[in-house]
Amino acid sequence: MIDRYTRPEMGHIFSLENKYAVWQEIEVLACEAHAELGESGITKEEAAWIREHAAFNKQEVDEIEAVTNHDVIAFLTNMGSYIDADVPAGQPKPSRWVHYGMTSSDLGDTALCYQLVQATDILIEDCKKLGEICKRRAFEEKDTLCVGRTHGIHAEPMTFGMKFGSWAWELKRDLDRLRDARNNVAFGAISGAVGTYSSIDPRVEEYVCEHLGLVHDPLSTQVISRDHHAYLAGVLATTAATCERIATEIRNLQKTDTLEAEEPFRKGQKGSSAMPHKRNPITVEKVCGLSRVVKANAQVAFDNVALWHERDISHSSAERVAQADSFIALDHMFSCLIRIVDGLVLYPAQMMANLNKTRGLIYSSKVLLHLVDTGITREDAYKIVQENAMATWREVQQCEPGSTFREKLEADPRCAKLQPSELDAIFDPRSFLTRVGVVFDRLEQLEF
Fold first, then answer.
1. Which of 112, 193, 374, 426 yields a CA-CA distance of 20 to 30 A from 130?
2. What is the mean pLDDT of residues 82-106?
């Protein structure tokens, strides 16, 4: 992922420095496990020496890899040189015990899962923070009237707080999925060339995994099966889709023709190189764009599940790109939305203007039910309401002066049974919200 979208903490997790540090810890833990078991020949003193002297230099590893064309061998060679540097001449080299009975995937796959756990922990905190902001803002705008839209068309009155609340609930589901996916990928495997433990005791695997906070894979081949990684990638894609949903709603609400909400416009910010008046929703547009990357990368993870026999390497190159990019992109998306949602500028007066824009058409459902209550069949009531509504629509569409939807109903003899007081109640936007309190009662119980 390019630096523009990489936050330092997440970027560090997928850096070579961090990967090599995790590799080092795994190799040292394996040596300590062998020493504890006392079966392979390594002594506890040698394991302690390895723990104290193990180190690596990224530049030196790169130089060795340029010759070996094998990153694990390059790393082990470099780490071994530091372990043995202070060993007196003629003495056995402790580095001979490093990687004892292991294969490259034992190291690489266990380390990768550890890194994915590290990265998921960051996203979990991101998700919690954004969810808590959405919940707070939902209650701040609990009574802020706006029009609800279905298919992009005005439907019925609602409150703006419900938008924030809906996002909060979806983020809670994302949070639950992220936690589950974290546990599902927190596995390690040190089982040898094809998973038979032919040259290493299974207790070494258990020791290493326990110290890393991982669970040992019950049956790995040479690799940890990629369904673990695919499930996580799918969860990242779903979470990215949530972020995109939030961003898309803000983009739609910021359109000049709607202008009910606006992402914060910072002091000194410029909207267009050609049009000084512009205040574009560029941050939420960026979120939508990055969501496409995360969702597309999920397909890469699904394709990585089917490997040849006990292992091939076709997955490796693809996931080195896709996994890091997905985590870094989603972390950046969260950071953007945390700022945007927290500071989202709302325009309640414009919300009311939009609510009244269709001259009362949004109250048609209430009119329909009240006509039914007077004894008219639903079919006849629907016809009466629709005829008057379509007449109003035509005048609204053509920007023609004309009577409101209510005035048309009052002039229609078929609606004579609807009393003025009854119409007052029907055309009160708050009448649609008499039961909305239950929504916020439920939201009150939401915890992240």
1. 112
2. 95
Is 151 an active-site residue?
Answer: yes
**3-state SS of the chain?**
CCHHHCCHHHHHHCCHHHHHHHHHHHHHHHHHHHHHHCCCCCCHHHHHHHHHHCCCCHHHHHHHHHHHCCHHHHHHHHHHHHHHCCCCCCCCCHHHHCCCCCCHHHHHHHHHHHHHHHHHHHHHHHHHHHHHHHHHHHHHCCCCEEEEEECCEEEEEEEHHHHHHHHHHHHHHHHHHHHHHHHHHCEECCCCCCCCCCCCCHHHHHHHHHHHCCEECCCCCCCCCCHHHHHHHHHHHHHHHHHHHHHHHHHHHHCCCCCCEECCCCCCCCCCCCCCCCCCCHHHHHHHHHHHHHHHHHHHHHHCCCCCCCCCCHHHHHHHHHHHHHHHHHHHHHHHHHHHHHCCEECHHHHHHHHCCCCCHHHHHHHHHHHHHCCCCHHHHHHHHHHHHHHHHHHHHCCCCCCCHHHHHHHCHHHCCCCHHHHHHHCCHHHHHCCCHHHHHHHHCCCC
Mean pLDDT, range 370-376, rounded to an integer: 94
- pLDDT of 116-146, one tens digit each? 999 999 999 999 999 999 999 999 999 999 9
- In whole angstroms, what is the distance from residue 342 CA to residue 11 CA? 24
Q: What is the pLDDT of residues 386-424, one digit of tens each?
A: 999 999 999 999 999 999 999 999 999 999 999 999 999
Other Cβ atoms less than 10 A from the Cβ of 401: the count is: 5
Contact 335, 290 (CB under 8 A): no
- Of 198, 199, 272, 365, which one is the catalytic site residue? 272
